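ARCHIVE CARD
Drawer: 12
Card no.: 0347
Subject: one protein chain, sequence and derived structure
Cross-reference: see card 0346
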Amino acid sequence: MDTDKRLDAVRPYVLSVFRMVVSLLFASHGASTVLGVLGGSSNPDRPSFGVWPGWWAGLIQLVCGILVFVGIGETGTRLAALAGSGSMAYAYFTVHQKRALWPIENGGEGAAMFCWSLLLVAVMGQGAWSLAQVVARRFQPLEAGAGEPEPEVT
């Protein structure tokens, strides 16, 4: 088996791990902003409840991060990832870009990485592991003849 075939075989699993890691970090950032946990309470720039755009951006990060993490179905996961990606593009261009041209200069590396990472998830899908797939397998109807004996014909 050549390298390409081996990598192709693990692609859906690596994509799932990538999706879960990125979305966990994204949700953590949102939780820090909205709930003041994970170091957020010590942040002097933490927005107050309901303040636009900071608090709402944090809420989008928290909700989209959780939805993408669990994998709520192919379409739902893609839409949540796209919403998260769009919110980070908005954050980058409205907050960071006006400070300087390059992300390293304007502090926008996180926004840029989340934007492109979530866009990748939106395009590539949720991968092999997701809550939707677990639920589908759990409640999948038995195929005809599988699991139950055939009734006797007399």
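Annotation on reverse: The radius of gyration is 21 Å. The chain has a mean pLDDT of 89.
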